[in-house]
Amino acid sequence: MNLIPAQDNITAELFDQIADQLEDKGYIILPSLLPAELTDSLFNEVAQLNKAEFQDAGIGRDQQNQQNNFVRTDEIRWLNGETEAQAGFLEFMSTLRLELNRRLFLGLFDYECHFAHYAPGDFYKRHLDAFHGKSNRVLSTVVYLNPGWTPNDGGELLMYEQKQREHFLKVTPMYGSCVIFLSERFPHEVLKANRDRYSIAGWFRINNSIGGVVDPAR
């Protein structure tokens, strides 16, 4: 089965909707983004991974990256296109990158992403996706892979405006839904999950390479 989405199955109206909402509000919540077959394949892949195939998530970048269980307790696995499902997802996001550049002139250069697994009790406290002193992460994306999720399962995403203590948005991680938002604008957090919670977290980045120093790097 070919999981790479055909271009004629991805409508211009979808890209217009995403671009309009990002320009107007800085974020968009989509009840579904990917073709159903691709969503199912990604869920089947991440749900079958064992703990040894994940790594503990850290905070910070490069040499400053470190584990901090006070801030976050989830685990991750980077996507590199090694499976058909991963290749299909990365192809879809590459198309989205080009279409948003065409509409919003964002200069998005590449995309990085990982599976995220929150076991019962896991959380990620309030944070920004853009690293301090860096501007290469421009857009954040989260695709949820949680069949049959209910409000009692917890694990909601809370989004904040800068300098505001109370969240303005609470997102239940429903299966196939997606959130896209400006990385530098919205602090956010993930509340404790009451059962295994899966997603793909990703970032569209710009190219800050200067003087032979390659940026972005992962």
Describe this structure in words.
This protein is an alpha+beta fold and 218 residues long. The chain has one domain (7-57, 67-205): Jelly Rolls, CATH 2.60.120.620. Helices cover 21% and strands 25% of the residues. The protein contains 3 helices and 11 strands, in the order H-E-H-E-E-H-E-E-E-E-E-E-E-E. It has helices spanning 12-24, 36-47, 84-104; strands at residues 27-30, 55-56, 75-78, 110-118, 124-127, 137-144, 157-159, 169-171, 178-182, 188-190, 197-205. The protein has a 7-stranded antiparallel sheet with strand order 1-9-6-11-4-3-2, with helices on one face. A 4-stranded antiparallel sheet has the order 5-10-7-8, with no helix packed on it. It starts with 11 loop residues before the first helix and ends in a 13-residue tail after the last strand.
